[in-house]
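1st attempt posting a full record on here, be nice pls
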Amino acid sequence: MNLFRQSPFEGLKKHAQLIRDVAPVFRDAFNAYMLDNSVEFETCHNKVTIIEDQGDRIKRNIRGHLPRGILLPMDKFKLLWYLREQDKVLDAAQDTLHWLSYRKTLIPEVFGGDLLFMVEKITEVQESVYPLVETAELYFQSFSEKERTNVKMKIRNIRELEFQSDQVERSLLSDILSYPFENATSAYHLSELVRLMGGVSNHAENAGDMMRAMIAR
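the predicted structure (as tokens):
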């Protein structure tokens, strides 16, 4: 019996809850930046930094409780790779706000709508990670086909949100690089911002793909 330890999903859910907690703070930070509210932006920025640090501690704890010989209902390598991608969702959100904090760039009004739409999609992606982990835990407790189908539905939802985010990202990058900025640094700052924002959704999709591999039969 000493080969069995606490389910890794307890830690994964705690970590995923942090991602869900970050979602509204990330959105508020972006809105504050666009409204030139530096105090509110820094408050949100600091909150995300603190949460990301908590996520790193949970990640290390999960890894530390998966020694050689432990029995798991899934491939250990796939579980660790899933954890890596889930953690990168938090990392990417923090990296995005770090990047915003480096420079105050005036965002042309023509980009405002698409940027806010992309932020909303990223927020939805962040909020979708916890339900995925929660549903996967139920599947690995029962191995029922019903729960397996539910997991695949959660994965498809994340993929759809990532697709929508990716479409806006590509459009924004094209428009930003064609816009007549007076300062080339502004164009670079905004284009890199969009790329970093897209990373949040990309890593969530990667996590979903790894979860799909974990439940494969």
